[in-house]
């Protein structure tokens, strides 16, 4: 038998997606044929052909990056038994957990509380865990909810461990009434007792949200009386300290609301993460960090151990910066009506990334190595670090980089030297306050070389990209059952706003000095990883060719011209087959991911709608930002419990500009189809044919929710102002069309 300690703790499994590969290659071939046709066609000097050629070239480039990303998918298999043979439970490394919340209205405290409870109950020695909750909303309600939840945790944590509960978020766990029919009478009794306690807890939080916080607690809440969410000093409260360092109790839990002042940029989530990094550095300084958004509860209680298989593996130890767990969502809207469940896409693109230099950092559900966050490169020489960090001069250097807190700099030195001893003595709030102040980062490397990087609302992808550029790899930690579950937007407004933020933030990265292309030229970003990053960061740019392409059939019908080969030409088979092959392969991928045909269509349709609306707005936002006209905000996604959702898959609309491109495109198709019905076009040769009419009809089909919106009432209707603006734009477009004929 092989020596136990030399066996790897995890293994990469390479998936074979042969059918997908064939279909993808066919698609590429057809795209090339189409481009070839454009170049060689006798029509190639017409305006529509030229525009089509440009758009299709862009699609081809995008397709090459897509294909390269998908080509070698992989995931990981972890060996818990080997881990536990190698590291005894008492030798497991400490783990700091970061939870971020920012707005008690959009992120109801009961959701945050459930996430925190599930984390406190992780299958991991409690004396190795510390849970830090960052509240950018500076909300006494959130604090109150956490205080109450900690009391409940004293029942919940032992209960979960005793009965080996899988889902450790009570609101999900108690949904399942089946549990009560357990054979063990003792279990049954406890189950009911704890369920009742949980109901009391959520009742209290509900009550506090509606009325006010109970007065017996007022003393503790005084500190919130003078605060405004965007203007207050630091609040740090140790809600629970595991003073005895016991392994079977409730871990440390610390509430943090960092200082905020109107004049100081706070860098949204990235800023919050950096404060958490520093405070935890001072307090517990664990070598590993797990970060989750407030809505992502633990669904696999052993997940920390799985992730450590990757991070402690002898190869992983040297190469892997972080272990990212997939993002999954609970209580999806039926058939994914808003296309935000992201199931098929991660299965192909996500594991594709994982087969290259590594999966992107998704901002949540991720286990980090603390020293990587401090800017260390792989194969960083510990001997050297030792030498480096003892001289006084180097302490000075470290201070310039990490800021002037002596305690924190000392903790950094520990991490860089790879010291494994537990740093925790007591949770010192005074030192922690200093590193949470808004001027702490002045003239330091925070947000630039150290910590979460600033400058993009997709701080996650940016930060991960930086690690990859340094030469680190990352792994997808795919477990069964899935590690974490969270909320996804429950309506199209949330979904579209989210995509706008992502596409804006991602384009910001592409246009910054962190651009993946530079990463490959000057750093250690591997070529195909670079292509994959180009694929993802170019999301917003994709909107422009897609909008042009959607307008093209209408343009052709209005001007009686064509952009597709006409019926007499035999080359019509190229675009037709392309359309068919692309859709079949996409449909196949959805079915293989266990999704319905309806879901496929919804995703397909939402793909078009978000690209042409959300991403286009994202594109404009970046344009304005670069012209220094406006800055990009971080709009927080609303988290709600699905029971409150009455839209059941219907689209809702508001005055937002986000609906303008779509409404206009739809109007233009109407005008075109109407004209074709009445045969109003000028008589010129090369008139449009079935192809153009089909395409125009297809666009209308994709925009069916908008079509319904034109006739809908209240929030289900597109506001009159948007309709008016769109009508004006549509007629401008028609006017432009007629101008081009006149020429
Ligand atoms: O100023 C802020 C803004 C946001 N957040 C937190 O950031 C997290 C993510 O925000 P959310 O509105 O849920 O965004 P999503 O669109 O769901 O987030 C995805 O995309 C983000 C980047 O755009 C990543 O940061 C997230 O981890 C990733 O889940 C939440 O916990 C927020 O509380 C803060 O702490 N401070
Ligand atoms: Mn979220």
TrEMBL record:
UniProt-listed InterPro entries: Cellulose_synth (IPR005150), Nucleotide-diphossugar_trans (IPR029044)
SUPFAM superfamilies to which the protein is assigned, alphabetical: Nucleotide-diphospho-sugar transferases (SSF53448)
Which of UniProt's keywords are assigned here?
A: Cell wall biogenesis/degradation, Glycosyltransferase, Membrane, Transferase, Transmembrane, Transmembrane helix
Transmembrane parts of this sequence: 657-675, 687-706, 718-737
Cell compartment(s), UniProt: Endomembrane system
Where, by residue number, does Mn(2+) bind? 269, 293
- Cited Pfam families: Cellulose_synt (PF03552)
Where does the chain bind UDP-alpha-D-glucose? 107, 136
| UniProt protein name | Cellulose synthase-like protein H1 isoform X1
Q: Which organism is it from?
A: Cicer arietinum (Chickpea)
Name the lineage. Eukaryota, Viridiplantae, Streptophyta, Embryophyta, Tracheophyta
Q: Quote the gene name from the UniProt entry.
A: LOC101512986
């Amino acid at each position: 038998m092989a020596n136990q300690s030399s066996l790897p703790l995890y293994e990469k499994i390479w998936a074979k997606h042969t059918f997908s590969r064939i279909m993808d290659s066919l698609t590429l071939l057809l795209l090339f044929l189409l481009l070839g046709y454009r170049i060689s066609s006798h029509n190639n000097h017409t305006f529509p052909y030229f525009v089509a050629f440009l758009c299709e070239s862009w699609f081809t480039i995008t397709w090459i990056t897509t294909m390269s990303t998908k080509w070698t998918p992989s995931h990981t298999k972890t060996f818990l038994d080997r881990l536990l043979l190698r590291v005894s439970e008492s030798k497991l490394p400490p783990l700091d957990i970061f939870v971020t919340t920012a707005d008690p209205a959009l992120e109801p405290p009961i959701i945050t509380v459930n996430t925190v409870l599930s984390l406190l109950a992780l299958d991991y020695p409690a004396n190795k865990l510390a849970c830090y909750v960052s509240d950018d909303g500076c909300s006494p309600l959130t604090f109150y909810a956490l205080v109450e939840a900690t009391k409940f945790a004293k029942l919940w944590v032992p209960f979960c461990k005793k009965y080996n509960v899988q889902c450790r978020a009570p609101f999900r766990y108690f949904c399942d009434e089946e549990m009560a029919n357990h054979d063990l009478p003792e279990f049954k009794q406890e189950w009911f007792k704890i369920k009742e306690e949980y109901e009391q807890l959520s009742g209290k939080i509900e009550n506090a949200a509606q009325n006010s916080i109970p007065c017996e607690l007022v003393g503790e809440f005084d500190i919130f009386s003078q605060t405004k969410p965007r203007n207050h000093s630091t609040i740090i409260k140790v809600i629970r300290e595991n003073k005895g360092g016991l392994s079977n109790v409730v871990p440390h839990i610390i509430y943090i609301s960092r200082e905020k002042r109107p004049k100081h940029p706070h860098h949204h989530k990235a800023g919050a993460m950096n404060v958490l990094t520093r405070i935890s550095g001072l307090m517990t300084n664990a070598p590993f960090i797990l970060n989750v958004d407030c809505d992502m509860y633990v669904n696999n209680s052993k997940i920390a151990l799985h992730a450590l298989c990757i991070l402690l593996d002898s190869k992983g130890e040297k190469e892997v910066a972080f272990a990212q767990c997939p993002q999954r969502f609970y209580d999806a809207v039926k058939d994914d009506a808003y296309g935000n469940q992201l199931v098929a896409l991660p299965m192909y693109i996500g594991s594709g990334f994982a087969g290259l230099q590594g999966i992107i950092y998704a901002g949540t559900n991720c286990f980090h190595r603390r020293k990587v966050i401090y800017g260390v490169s792989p194969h960083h020489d510990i001997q050297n670090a030792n030498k480096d960090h003892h001289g006084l001069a180097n302490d000075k250097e470290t201070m310039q980089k990490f800021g002037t807190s002596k305690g924190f700099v000392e903790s950094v030195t520990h991490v860089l030297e790879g010291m494994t001893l537990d740093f925790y003595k007591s949770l010192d709030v005074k030192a922690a306050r200093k590193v949470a102040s808004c001027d702490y980062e002045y003239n330091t490397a925070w947000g630039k070389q150290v910590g979460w990087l600033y400058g993009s609302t997709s701080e996650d992808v940016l930060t991960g990209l930086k690690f990859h550029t340094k030469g680190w790899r990352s792994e997808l930690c795919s477990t069964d059952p899935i590690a974490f579950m969270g909320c996804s937007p429950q309506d199209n407004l949330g979904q579209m706003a989210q995509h706008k933020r992502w596409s804006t933030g991602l384009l910001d990265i592409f246009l910054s000095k962190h651009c993946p292309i530079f990463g490959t030229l000057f750093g250690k970003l591997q070529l195909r990883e670079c292509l994959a990053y180009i694929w993802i960061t170019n999301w917003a740019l994709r909107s422009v060719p897609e909008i042009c392409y959607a307008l093209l059939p209408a343009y052709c019908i209005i001007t009686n011209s064509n952009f597709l080969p006409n019926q007499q030409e035999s080359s019509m088979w190229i675009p037709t087959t392309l359309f068919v092959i692309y859709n079949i392969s996409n449909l196949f991928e959805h079915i293989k991911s266990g999704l319905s045909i309806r879901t496929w269509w919804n995703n397909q349709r939402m793909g078009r709608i978000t690209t042409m609306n959300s991403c286009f707005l994202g594109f404009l936002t970046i344009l304005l930002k670069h012209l220094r006209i406006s800055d990009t905000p971080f709009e927080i996604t609303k988290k709600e419990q699905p029971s409150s959702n009455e839209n059941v898959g219907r689209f809702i609309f508001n005055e937002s500009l986000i609906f303008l491109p779509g409404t206009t495109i739809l109007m233009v198709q109407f005008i075109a189809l109407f004209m074709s019905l009445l045969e109003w076009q000028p008589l010129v040769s090369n008139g449009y044919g079935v192809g153009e009419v089909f395409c125009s009809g297809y666009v209308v089909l994709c925009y069916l929710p908008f079509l319904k919106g034109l006739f809908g009432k209240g929030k289900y209707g597109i506001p009159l102002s948007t309709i008016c603006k769109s009508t004006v734009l549509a007629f401008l477009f028609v006017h432009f069309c007629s101008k081009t004929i006149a020429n």
